C-alpha cells in the first residue's frame, strides 16, 4: 500500500522515524523526509551499511527542498529476508519498493554497492529513473571489484580500527593525511547525531552475502552502459582503494553525456570528505532542466 501523504514529513535525518512497508514476502525499513511534492531522491547505500550510515549533513541539505527516501534492502538492518545473491536481484527489490511506495518516477543515488544497484535499476527500468548519481562505485566486470575485501590493506585497516576502537570507515574511506583524518572524525561524529530509533546493525551473515554478491558483480560480463539514458553524475575521490577511481573514469566514458567529479586528496568516502561540494553538485544536477 502506498504511503499516505497526509502526515507531514520530518525535515531532518535525526528526526525521521523508521517506517516499514511490505514488499512481496519482505518487510523493508525506510526513512522518508522533506517536502511533500516533487520527484523524490532515493538513496542506496554501501557494503555493510544500514540507514544510519547516511551522512546527516548531506541528507538534510538536500531535504530542504526535495523529498528524500532511503531504504534497507532485504536482509539489511531492520529489513526482513535474505540479502539477494545478485545485483540484479537487489535492483528488483529496489524497484519493488519504489512501486509499492506508489512512486512512478525517481531520482536515484547509489554509493559504492548502492551504485552497482542504481546502475542496474537504470538499465532495467529506464522509465523509472529521471536522474542518476553514482558515487564511489564502478561497472559490472570492473577491475578490482571482485576483491572487495581481498587486499591485505583492507584487513589491516579493519584491524587498526578495532585496535583504535573506532569505525573501520575511518581507515577505509579516508586517507591518512591531516585533512583526511579530520574529515573522518567529522563524518563519524555526524553519523552519531541520530540517537532516536536507530537502525538494527547488519548481521555478519548478511555482510558476507553482500561480499559474495559484490564478487559476482566484479566477475560479470560488462554491460552496455550506453543504454543508460538518465542524465548521470559520477563522483569519487582521487585515491579510492575499495572501488578503484579509474572505474569512475570508465563509467564516464561509457555513459553518454555523463558528468564526472573527482575530489582531490580523497578516497572511497570522498563525497563525504567533500560533502558541501558534493551537495552543491547533486543539487545542481537534480535541478537542471532535462
From TrEMBL:
Q: Where does the AB hydrolase-1 domain start and stop, copy by copy?
A: 40-274
- What does the UniProt keyword field contain? Hydrolase
- Which molecular-function annotation in GO is an example for this chain? hydrolase activity
- Read off the Pfam families from this record: Abhydrolase_1 (PF00561)
Taking the record's annotation, the residue ranges forming a coiled coil are none
Q: What is this protein called?
A: Alpha/beta hydrolase
Which organism does this record belong to? Streptomyces roseus
Amino acid at each position: 500500500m502506498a504511503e499516505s501523504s497526509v502526515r507531514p514529513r520530518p525535515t531532518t535525518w535525526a528526526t525521521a522515524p523508521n517506517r516499514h512497508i511490505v514488499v512481496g514476502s519482505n518487510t523493508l525499513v525506510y526513512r522518508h523526509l522533506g517536502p511533500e511534492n516533487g520527484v523524490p531522491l532515493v538513496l542506496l547505500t554501501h557494503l555493510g551499511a544500514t540507514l544510519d550510515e547516511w551522512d546527516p549533513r548531506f541528507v538534510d541539505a538536500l531535504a530542504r527542498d526535495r523529498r528524500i527516501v532511503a531504504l534497507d534492502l532485504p536482509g539489511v538492518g531492520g529489513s526482513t529476508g535474505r540479502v539477494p545473491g545478485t545485483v540484479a536481484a537487489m535492483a528488483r527489490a529496489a524497484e519493488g519498493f519504489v512501486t509499492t511506495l506508489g512512486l512512478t518516477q525517481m531520482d536515484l543515488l547509489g554509493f559504492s554497492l548502492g551504485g552497482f544497484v542504481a546502475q542496474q535499476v537504470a538499465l532495467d527500468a529506464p522509465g523509472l529513473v529521471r536522474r542518476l548519481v553514482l558515487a564511489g562505485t564502478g561497472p559490472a566486470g570492473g577491475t578490482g571489484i571482485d576483491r572487495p575485501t581481498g587486499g591485505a590493506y583492507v584487513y589491516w585497516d579493519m584491524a587498526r580500527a578495532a585496535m583504535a576502537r573506532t569505525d573501520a570507515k575511518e581507515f577505509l574511506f579516508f586517507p591518512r593525511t591531516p585533512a583526511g583524518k579530520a574529515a573522518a572524525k567529522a563524518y563519524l561524529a555526524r553519523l552519531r547525531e541520530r540517537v532516536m530509533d536507530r537502525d538494527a546493525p547488519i548481521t555478519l551473515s548478511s555482510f558476507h552475502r553482500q561480499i559474495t554478491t559484490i564478487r559476482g558483480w566484479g566477475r560479470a560480463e560488462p554491460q552496455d552502459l550506453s543504454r543508460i539514458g538518465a542524465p548521470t553524475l559520477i563522483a569519487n575521490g582521487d585515491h579510492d582503494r575499495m572501488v578503484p577511481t579509474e572505474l569512475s573514469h570508465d563509467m564516464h566514458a561509457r555513459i553518454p553525456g555523463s558528468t564526472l567529479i573527482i575530489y582531490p586528496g580523497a578516497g572511497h568516502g570522498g563525497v563525504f570528505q567533500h560533502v558541501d561540494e558534493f551537495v552543491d553538485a547533486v543539487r545542481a544536477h537534480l535541478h537542471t532542466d532535462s
